[in-house]
């Protein structure tokens, strides 16, 4: 059995405790590449004209490495970092959409409905007031018709899992201390994740 380390020094016995399991317990493989679409404003405009507000759901997945919480990020073209997830289909729920996206990008079986993913609470929402601005962690009161909403969900990992990643992407474990407020490298949403997690007491389960 592993040794449990609580980095805050106490157990509060609440739902805000989060067990994080060692990276060594996870296995990584690859599968056929999937198309990657850049965040082109022209495409966002055409999608908005056809369907209205674009809603994206993204997963916050944590693992333990060197007694420190690490965030799992997808890297595309060696320079673009993304949280696993994507755009919802019309009428699709947040949870169902995120499970579908996780199955497509991180699972062996893409048609299994994503039942193996435990989607937890929504940690935060980001809004894009218009097509060309960076997202805000709030909806400005003067914005009546936002163009995009991105919702971040905590997804709890089991002690062991196989991640099967498209060949044109890399799955990286990045320490939270490196991500914190590092807007230049990771953008405003990813670099804000450590603050969203600040309410949790991390229980590092060492191998």
UniProtKB/TrEMBL annotation:
Gene3D superfamilies: Nucleoside Triphosphate Pyrophosphohydrolase
One Gene Ontology molecular-function label: mRNA binding
Pfam family name, one: NUDIX_2
Nucleus keyword on record: yes
Coiled coil regions in record: none
Entry's Gene Ontology cellular component terms: mRNA cleavage factor complex
Compartment(s) where it occurs, according to its Swiss-Prot or TrEMBL record: Nucleus
Family that this chain belongs to: Belongs to the Nudix hydrolase family. CPSF5 subfamily.
Task of the protein: Component of the cleavage factor Im (CFIm) complex that plays a key role in pre-mRNA 3'-processing. Involved in association with CPSF6 or CPSF7 in pre-MRNA 3'-end poly(A) site cleavage and poly(A) addition. NUDT21/CPSF5 binds to cleavage and polyadenylation RNA substrates. The homodimer mediates simultaneous sequence-specific recognition of two 5'-UGUA-3' elements within the pre-mRNA. Binds to, but does not hydrolyze mono- and di-adenosine nucleotides. May have a role in mRNA export.
Assembly behavior: Homodimer. Component of the cleavage factor Im (CFIm) complex.
Name of the protein: Pre-mRNA cleavage factor Im 25 kDa subunit
Organism: Clitoria ternatea (Butterfly pea)
Lineage: Eukaryota, Viridiplantae, Streptophyta, Embryophyta, Tracheophyta
